[in-house]
Amino acid sequence: MLPVTRYAFLVSPSHNRVYAQAAPALAVAEMAVLAERAFEGRLRDVGTTTLGGLPYVTFTLDDAARPDTAGTDLALLSALSSAYALFVVDGDGDDATLRPVTRAAVDLFDSDLLTVQKYAGKTNEDFTRLLVNVTVAATDRPRDLAGPWTTRPDGARRRLRVLDPMAGRGTTLNQALVRGWDAAGVDVDQKDVEAYATFLRTWLKNHRLKHTAGLSTVRRDGRSLGRRFEATVGATADEYRAGDTIAVELVNADTVRAADLFPAGHFDAIVTDAPYGVQHGNRASGTRGAGGRSTPHDELTRSPVPLLTKALPGWVRLLRRGGAVGISWNVRVAPRAALEDVLRDAGLEVLGDVRDDAAPDPWHGFEHRVDQAIQRDLVVARKPR
Ligand SMILES: C[S@@+](CC[C@H](N)C(=O)[O-])C[C@H]1O[C@@H](n2cnc3c(N)ncnc32)[C@H](O)[C@@H]1O
């Protein structure tokens, strides 16, 4: 038998608050996706156990098989949305002891970047991290999750690029920025773009990070398409001076026009939390002007499927081959099969396709209760190479 190391991690207390009883199951599902995508079969036996009255996720990792990748393995484990404290488990049964493992510093900035903003309609930051993680894991370069960089087929290195095409006030953008990835977003609500611009500028100043930031108007063929907030950030002053900066932008526009805003094939991952049909209705596209102000005639539809049907062809154009789309939505307003159909119709391969004979897990382990009106799930699909 190959030598394997047993690990256990304590599920983050904030995870328990977000998901209540579902927290360990969601942590296992995230871990299982990473095991399948990023560990070449070396990570196995994912499960849960209670130690000292607290929930732990446990697994085995064959780290002897690839000692050269130990640093990347640790970074991948450290990137999980659910992992709080990581341990190696020595011994068995009652004699087992936990040996702390220092996690890799995969987040480049203080966690208050993710937690300071509070507003109605915010997608929980831990859930957003989970959605981002499983979407990047679904790309053809899943180990990119370990750090800021991706390596192109020609060998050149660049930052990973993530788009949230219905970004609100930027929870996904912040999750990308903290990992050193270039982040872009689109939202139809001008107030969201302005609020995010104010937040990020203040946060960058308070943290004394070298940056540029500005709001401008996007024009195409002489017409105003909406406001655009753009920032570049240096993780360190030296990197900023060397021009090695992280780009963040958020554009006020209807997401069905997203393909007009960015170059084709630009993004590695597209991640979005679709409107829930509760507080945030999705406007059937085109019913809002560039200013993004509501009118009494704005039509609120409950299901995100009509909007996704219109928007996905444009989003897919913006995705590179081998890139992935991850969408979370409220299953009370649209069944999973409808979301999968829209993704397939747009030319994508759904991960864990139920029509596949192979077991659909781990992609079906994410459904959980948010509140009385919202039962959330996620679906991930990849653009063929
Ligand atoms: C569930 S919220 C996303 C919240 C975001 N993740 C955050 O934490 O701030 C859905 C977002 O979709 C946006 N939206 C709805 N219809 C849209 C459209 N046609 N184009 C662009 N954005 C749209 C809403 O304005 C809202 O901000």
Describe the structure.
There is one protein chain. This protein has about 375 residues and is an alpha+beta fold. The chain has 2 domains: about 5-100, Alpha-Beta Plaits (2-Layer Sandwich); about 110-380, Vaccinia Virus protein VP39 (Rossmann fold, 3-Layer(aba) Sandwich). It has 10 helices and 19 strands. Strands 8, 9, 10, 11, 12, 13, 16, 17, 18 and 19 form a 10-stranded mixed sheet that branches. The radius of gyration is 21 Å and the shape is globular. The structure holds S-adenosylmethionine (SAM). S-adenosylmethionine (SAM) binds near residues 167, 276 and 285.
What descriptive keywords fit this protein?
5-stranded antiparallel β-sheet, 10 helices, binds S-adenosylmethionine, 10-stranded mixed β-sheet, 385 residues, Alpha-Beta Plaits, alpha+beta, 27% helix, 19 strands
